Amino acid sequence: MQEPEEKKIALELLETEQAYVNRLHLLDQVFCAELMKEAKTGKTVPEEVVKMIFSNISSIYQFHAKFFLPELQKRMEDWNRNPRIGDVIQKLAPFLKMYGEYVKNFDKAMELITAWSEKSPPFQELIADIQKRKVCANLTLQHHMLEPVQRIPRYELLLKDYVRKLPPQSPDRGDAEKALEMIFMVAKHSNAAIAEMERLQNLWVVYQRLGLEDDIVDPSNELIKEGPIQKISTRNNSTSEKYLFLFNNMLLYCAPKVIQVGAEFQVHLRMDMEGMKVQELKDTEFPHTFLVSGKQRTLELQARSEEEMNAWIK
């Protein structure tokens, strides 16, 4: 008898889950536990750093080892009598939101491992020692830590495949489709967490370049465009180099600082978006110019090309 396709996929889910739980055990019970033990002696690295590297890996490990894997095993042993896994995966899905925190912390964890490996030879030696063990299969700590980041997309793929292979009249169809939808929402949640983290990091870099002026630093702002621009002075018919930062709620008109200590730009003018008007100027002497007028004042600006001018106006 040929095994039905959906059973093969369910078995693959079980096998990969078993391997995944082993990987989580390695991260939590071996790497994290041994680094923590050493940290407590005060010789390698502060305890806080170990906690920051491993984030909430312990909760993730406990959940998979004590709940999801045993449930899945019971299901597969009972498959011939009750061929379904959709309802078990529905129980799993809400807990996958725990991954948001781990995924968000991942880049920071990688930076910490690198920084402390350089700073603390005993820290580096302990990691190298664990990596030499058979259980690590010649892979680095960083490589093992990537596994939880890739696990949710893996569930999504396996479950999609499972739903595709289910016979139309399968008793698991309704549950499996609902489970897939739930996993899809969690994957979106985890991707949104990463996107939000990147947005805030980029925003912070911009604020540092602007000298962290209080009235500008706001986490809800969104940077839309930035770049150099020429300011036209009608008084003496000349131009000078300026720099624009366009946010969702304001335009910052800046000048590059000559001595770049700390901030890179000096904010000369902040124009609110509300009531702002933008129009192209047909100026033969200064091509690619446009006017930006706000409540505060009006700027006559020149871009380097027509393309660039249109991009700013848009």
UniProtKB/TrEMBL annotation:
CDD domains: RhoGEF (cd00160). Keywords: Cytoplasm, Cytoskeleton, Metal-binding, Phosphoprotein, Repeat, Zinc, Zinc-finger. One of its GO terms (biological process) is cytoskeleton organization. The keyword Metal-binding applies. One of its GO terms (molecular function) is guanyl-nucleotide exchange factor activity. It comes from the Eukaryota. Pfam families: RhoGEF, SOS1_NGEF_PH. GO terms for cellular component: cytoplasm; cytoskeleton. Residues 222-314 form the PH domain. InterPro entries: DBL_dom_sf, DH_dom, FYVE_RhoGEF_PH, PH-like_dom_sf, PH_domain, SOS1_NGEF_PH. Residues 5-193 form the DH domain. Its main location: cytoplasm. It is found in: Cytoplasm, Cytoskeleton. The keyword Cell inner membrane does not apply. This is FGD2 protein. It comes from Dasyornis broadbenti (rufous bristle-bird). The gene is Fgd2_0.
